[in-house]
Amino acid sequence: MKVHVSEGTTEEQAEIIGEALASQYYDNVTVVTTGGEELVEVPYYGPGHVPGPEPEMGPTEREEELWKEIAEINEGGPKKYKEQLPDQGKEFVRDRIDLWFEDGFLFEDGRFAEFDADDKLPADGLITGGAEFEGRDIHFMANDYTVKRGSMAGKGVEKFLRMQQRALKTARPVLYLMDSSGGRIDQQTGFFANREGIGKYYYNHSMLSGRVPQICVLYGPCIAGAAYTPVFADFTIMVRDMSAMAIASPRMVEMVTGEEISMDDLGGPDVHSQDSGSADLVADDEEHARELVAQLVGYLPDNSDKQPPQTDGRPPATSPKDIDSIIPQDPNRGYDMTDLINSVVDAGSWFELQPEFGPEMLTGFARIDGRPVGIVANQPAQRAGAIFPDAAQKAAEFIWKCDAFNVPLLYLCDTPGFMAGSQVEKDAILEKGKKMIYATSSATVPKQCVVARKAYGAGIYAMSGPAYEPESTIALPSGEIAIMGPEAAINAVYARKLAEIDDPEERKQREQELREEYREDIDVHRMASEVVIDEIVPPSTLRKELKARFEFYETVDKDLPDKKHGTVL
């Protein structure tokens, strides 16, 4: 609105008039003289606005008191516990957060939890919030080991659950920085068995599973309930000489079973990276743990609705021209499959998971011309690449994760098949082999199968052979596909006839003839002739072939039967 005043009105008087009218009529006011000269324009700021300049008074006493309270909470638990951290090789939790999030976290929730408790329990021993990590918005939690050894109780449990529930709503990844001795036994009333108690953690973990990546880093001995978060996570990193996880503490184990054992021998990094398979990677220290997770997230989307992030491609570390020379002419001679991988994928992109668990199977992420792929490969350098129970379990879980987060799968097959024998039967080779085959069958992401050399027995099934609907089954000229290898086949079919030949030289010559006949029958040229496989490719072109095929089948649409879910996994 425009208001006219007399010619003698000063600018100060005009401003007072304008502010009064603006607040009365809820509108901007322009004050002009009767002669048309504009003296002042006063905006309307809304109800409750106090006219006049806004003074820069600085924090009030009330705000200063709040800052003091925040600073005290940020100091964590008792000083004596904080002073013990360097001897344990640990960072104080808020220093750890500064390491992970260079610009600090975006916000914190529940900082004042248990603020009025009789005992000093800053943030109730748990920090939760949102942060930016490697350019990605994530939810995070971090235990404060200086507060009751990072144990969980009512308010901390509430914070943890809220973080998980918000992650379900936002569909953003979750990072768990675990250093917890488990539930706080002396305060268990109100959080242990409640509908919204600590048991809800694992319900929420299950709901988040396959929806958003859940990544857990262990910084200490996580016992009992606290140990379930790392095993529910999609990827778990333990820190050497620092972390452990177990269903019960050594003291409890001794009480129940009489066994005396150290925490490291019970559930340290070697146990879970080599024997149980619960740890995907072992970091040397806190900085290394962050580096590993930074690499890992580069292969994963924010959630199951999105595609993995692509980067600019780069040439492989080893020339693809070397591929044929990597695979020995002798079909029974071992070699390192990682040499073949490094001739196919972008230099520096091979990121292996669970390297010490089931080492006869390689699982990990890589890029082919910038495109993330999950690689499942037999390792002839270990146990001739035969599939043992641990290897089958490892592969099944990795395939399932890749499928959940839309990472295409590359199978590199060179295996004599599943291992036989009484011990592997006791170790559930059939059960775990079944799970690998099920995961391969049910994966809906694009799949490419490469028969590098041996593809014997059910090994070709587990490695996504022709019957498992890969987008392509291609082979190198060294490839062989058969029910079993030549030696086993000759023994199974011709043992009696060969035994009837008395002359050792004649028997040896006949064995060699049978071996050559069998190899001719199982050679990939025969399989290509019968269109069992799609193509035999010159080894030096393998990377180019895979690049083209993954790009071509990027948007392939696969339907599963209409059912609630399978019963295998």
Automatic annotation (TrEMBL):
The keyword DNA-binding does not apply. Keywords: Ligase. Gene3D superfamilies: 2-enoyl-CoA Hydratase, Chain A, domain 1. Residues 262-282, 299-332 are annotated as: Disordered. GO terms for molecular function: ligase activity. The keyword Ligase applies. It comes from the Archaea. InterPro entries: AcCoA_carboxyl_beta, ClpP/crotonase-like_dom_sf, COA_CT_C, COA_CT_N, MCCB/AccD1-like. Residues 57-312 form the CoA carboxyltransferase N-terminal domain. It is an enzyme of class 6 (ligase). Its EC number is 6.-.-.-. Residues 322-562 form the CoA carboxyltransferase C-terminal domain. This is Acyl-CoA carboxylase subunit beta. It comes from Halovenus rubra.
